[in-house]
Amino acid sequence: MTASVIEVRGVSLRLGDFAVRRVDLSVAAGDYFVLLGPTGAGKTVLLECVAGLHRPEEGEIRVAGEQVNNVPPEARGLGYLPQDYALFPHLNVARNIAFGMRVRRRPRAEVEQKTRQLAELLGITHLLHRSPVRLSGGEQQRVALARALAIEPKVLLLDEPLSALDERMREALCMELRRVHEDLGTTTIHVSHNFEETLAVADRIGIIHDGRICQVGTPEEVFRRPTSEFVAHFVRCDNVLRGTARRAAEGIRVRVGELEFEAAEVPGEGRLPGEGRLPEGEVFLTVRPEEVGVAAAPGPAHPNRMVGRIVRVVDKGALIRVDVDIGVLLVALMGRRSFQAAGLKVGDEVAAFFEPSAAHVFAAQ
Questions:
Q1: Which of 130, 136, 224, 272 has the maximal Cβ count within 10 Å?
Q2: Tens of pLDDT along 290-336?
Q3: Residue 275 pLDDT grade (very low, low, confident, very high; cuts 50, 70, 90)
Q4: Residue 231: Cβ within 10 Å count
Q5: Domains of the chain, each with CATH number or no CATH
Q6: Which residues in 211-229 are b (16+ Cβ under 10 Å) and which e?
């Protein structure tokens, strides 16, 4: 098992009306870990605790096994990239990149070599003599990243590094961040509220809400197998239905009002911590909208095929959202071509359906 480079143990901190509450978190060596949550959830506060900008009131933070609660930021061996990049306007790009190495009194030849290596890695060699105030947002981001990497940090901390960029630039720099991570292998903690950004870079994700960590796992686990109602809604499951579950020969059946759905037990999935089987009793059943199909009614028999009526259609670009009233609202995401070929429209009677293996069930809390 890979050792943890960052360990947050029972950390609590109150800042005005907001508090980080008993947070436990481990980030393994070489991981690209994304801390994901809504605005005001505590993402930046927690990252700043790790960076040393806040001292926890309770708990401890360890970097590479060493407790650093009382260690100043500059002595923690961390590279930190704040939201505004914080480039020095009076220094050119080369001197910005070299700043941390010069503070640490590295030899001049080493500083120059490392500056050029990072500039080549990030494609900014042609900018080395330019002032930061004459750079685009994407160029500033690359310079700030090079400066953070120049000190060869144990961990790279990125606070919403792409939030000020347009969608096209964000997508390009996600690929850049992932490439640099794979080239250098630097353990990274990246704060974000953007789902597409998270999926593009993350090895593992931690969902944070109201100062607490709600769930940690791979993107597949968190987005497809949430363990709470908040996480299910936050990761856009859209179909989050409360009901009562009972065991059946084929797996588990969940009654929601007058409807009954079937969910299959998938090995290694759909489990609550410490449990070996899907829960019974009061539960939530979730199905991601891309797993829901819509077709002409009634159609062939299917364990989760329900006849209903289309009540709304929303054009989302490459995908079309189709809301079907089957007694409860079931949301489907269809490819544009499939939607157009089916000739669907609001008011049509249709069948909405999904595979039992696509249904995820967790206990209501």
A1: 224
A2: 999 999 877 778 889 999 999 999 999 889 999 999 999 999 999 99
A3: very low
A4: 21
A5: 4-224 (3.40.50.300), 238-365 (2.40.50.100)
A6: bbbbbbbebebbbbbbbbb
Q: With 0.85 as the threshold, say if the pTM is over it.
A: yes
Each residue's pLDDT tens digit, 85-134: 889 999 999 999 999 999 989 999 999 999 999 999 888 999 999 999 99
Question: Which amino acid type is present at position 74?
Answer: E
